[in-house]
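[stage:ingest] chain + small molecule (magnesium ion)
[stage:ingest] validated
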Amino acid sequence: MSRVLSILGSTGSIGVNALHVVKNLNQELNVKYLSAHKNSQRLIEQAKEFRPDAVAVVDTVAAKEVQGALKSEAIEVLSGRDGLLELACRQDVDILVNGLVGSAGMEPTIKAIRAGVDVALSNKESLVMAGDIINSEKAVSGAKIFPVDSEHSAIWQCLIGENIGEVEKIILTGSGGPFRSRNISDFSSITVKDALNHPNWSMGQKITIDSATMMNKGLEVIEARWLFDISVEKIDIVIHPESIIHSMVEFVDGSVKAQLGVPDMKVPIQYALTYPNHAPATWEKLSLPEIGSLTFESPDLEKFPAIQLAFDALKKGGSCPAVLNVANEQAVYRFLKGDIHFTDIPKIIDQACQTMAFFEKPVLEDILSLELETTRFVQEFESQLKE
Ligand code: MG
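[stage:predict] done
[stage:export] tokens:
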């Protein structure tokens, strides 16, 4: 089965795990392209180990360092955002792994799909912002999306051999994040350090904050809507603190299928790269007797208003989810800088969703201009904060 890969965001959490999978599968996967934002040292190490034909570095200063270090290696080095987009268009790979963070991942997904390249998608923001556009592009080029997000990988696996018309609902599970049992009156004192301390999953900073606000689950609802072409009314969230059941599908007869495993991103990444096969692995496997019990509860929408904001944006449709996504991302960055309170994040998103222009059927240019405007709106947003 040898497959040729492009890995965007190779120095981030998903990229590093994807390269673990490449090693686990030994000769079966070949890395042709890698990209990084600015972690030049890690990219240089990866390039020397995996010998890609080309790498792209978005940060131009870091790109110069990589160029210098790889001068004698016969590895092409592309630079800047344009270099990343150029790499995303290249058709001589079987699968492009999109492990980029945030809205910056949307255009590379669209470009790869348009080029007819299958995408192993970790960047859920692509579908949140442009799900309709991406599905139209898929229909034209025939390219596929293989979900990497653990919940969506679970749903995908539960749906194999099934008829989507017989699905009663999709049940997305979520751990509830670090603040599930915290009293709501203590939410305003949440620090960046508290929020970065996820109980089960080890991930990048942006998604870890999204898990703490539970916007991550909201974004995953929107992602599921487009991935599985299912209406919002058929998507439910259940809190499952152990993160062992990665999601479930309920059918019209009441039968429920679930997919289980240790909370390790290498499992869904590998499946996306070996589909329709499951390949052997040496990482830790699930031991149910050791876990003992699995528990479930309903999400607390009062503590986690981000969930409702995401459902509302999806129901309103059009360009709303794109604004929601960009406002969330920018608010998260402000929180990480110590600029705003944790509880300001959903307030800012709500304001942005109410204020920004609405496009019923946005084209890519509409979404890109909304991205700029929403970014500015959030960066300049001051009133009502620190109340
Ligand atoms: Mg997930």
